[in-house]
Amino acid sequence: MEAEPRKPAPPSPAPVQAARAALPVPVDRPALPSAKIRWLRTALAGLAILAASAAAIGLGRKADWGAPTVAVTHAVRGPAIEAVYASGVVEAIDFARFGATVAGRVTDVLVDEGAVVGKGDILARMEDRQPLARLEDARARQRMAEADIVRARTLMNKGVLSIQTLERAQQERDQAAATVALFARQLEDYTIVSPLTGVVMKRNVEPGETVAANATLFEVASTTRKRIAADVDERDIAGVRMGAKLAAHADGFPGEVFQAKVTNIRAQGDVSSRTFRVEADLPSDTKLLIGMTVDVDIVTGERGDALLVPTSAVGHEPSTGGRPGAPFVVVIDDGRARRASVVTGAIGQSKVEIRSGLAEGDLIALEASDKLKDGRSIRIAP
């Protein structure tokens, strides 16, 4: 058998200690003063705080990435006027269209359009030879009847004729007088006179023309009394009341507003246009001319302390069944958008009345946009 190899003997302690003693002696580092240690700790703590703040700011900015900038406004109190719109025309209150009541040829026309005429003034004459001849014949018969009465009375006094003969002569005289009066009245129909005082607005005849009976030959209107006649849609007529304020605008007088009050509402509407006629008397010194067309706003409601927002702040949900969707505004709460359904009242060119769904002082988006969904972060424009 082979002998096992011997293991080397461990070194003795003395040589180890001697080796350690032969190593170079380390040099000790000088200790830092206590003040510098405190300053260093304070600086490190400050750096940690700055790092945490920067991280928080970075997270906040990351959360605001893509947030739209929104202009805002407040709901305020103010006057609101609710009105219905209609188109109308200025017309004369005293107005007449007329002509001859008989057919014939017009021989003379005595006035032109724009002429001022009085009631009873002659405007035109017609050919009247035949009616005049009938009148002269009737007058001759009347004279003969009166002469017969004189002779009959003389003969009766002499006893030649009876009283019955005298009475019969008197009846014939009365009939002749009635015929004279009838023909004289018919002769007047051949003279066309004005039924009122005013201005000749239209003349539809020239001398020598043959006209039919009851044809309109003249239009005369009084310019002292005028009114606005407006056609109001049947959907709005229920809100119109007698005495309601009315504001009219005419292209002929830009920038001017003409005030009036409703004086008449026709009880029956026009079936074809589905409108009701509403009339408002104008003051005597109005600038509006007869025949002018006007745009009319009739006040149906007036409130002095209504809640108002800009028109642009009110949006509408998608339409359903051809009708506009429900109105809404976008309320800003803690930097986030919240869509609020509202009930509107009077709607003007720049302001809209809010009946419910919003409180005075609420912060809302100036422009109602479909992009401002509920809960979306927004940034308020300066």
Descriptive account of the structure:
It is a single chain. The protein is of the alpha+beta class. It folds into four domains: 69-80 and 304-380, conserved putative lor/sdh protein from methanococcus maripaludis s2 fold (Beta Barrel), CATH 2.40.420.20; 84-93 and 224-303, Beta Barrel (Elongation Factor Tu (Ef-tu), domain 3), CATH 2.40.30; 99-127 and 190-223, OB fold (Dihydrolipoamide Acetyltransferase, E2P) (Beta Barrel), CATH 2.40.50; 128-180. The protein is 25% helix and 34% strand. The protein has helices spanning 13-22, 34-64, 129-157, 163-188, and strands at residues 69-70, 72-74, 76-92, 95-98, 104-109, 116-117, 122-126, 191-193, 198-203, 210-211, 218-221, 226-233, 245-249, 258-265, 275-281, 293-310, 315-316, 327-333, 336-341, 343-347, 351-356, 363-365, 379-380. Strand 13 (245-249) and strand 14 (258-265) form a beta hairpin.
Topology, pairings included?
Layout: H1 13-22, H2 34-64, E1 69-70, E2 72-74, E3 76-92, E4 95-98, E5 104-109, E6 116-117, E7 122-126, H3 129-157, H4 163-188, E8 191-193, E9 198-203, E10 210-211, E11 218-221, E12 226-233, E13 245-249, E14 258-265, E15 275-281, E16 293-310, E17 315-316, E18 327-333, E19 336-341, E20 343-347, E21 351-356, E22 363-365, E23 379-380
Parallel strand pairs: 1-23
Antiparallel strand pairs: 2-22, 3-12, 3-16, 4-11, 5-7, 5-10, 6-9, 7-8, 9-11, 12-15, 13-14, 13-16, 14-15, 16-21, 17-18, 18-19, 20-21
Helix pairs in contact: 3-4
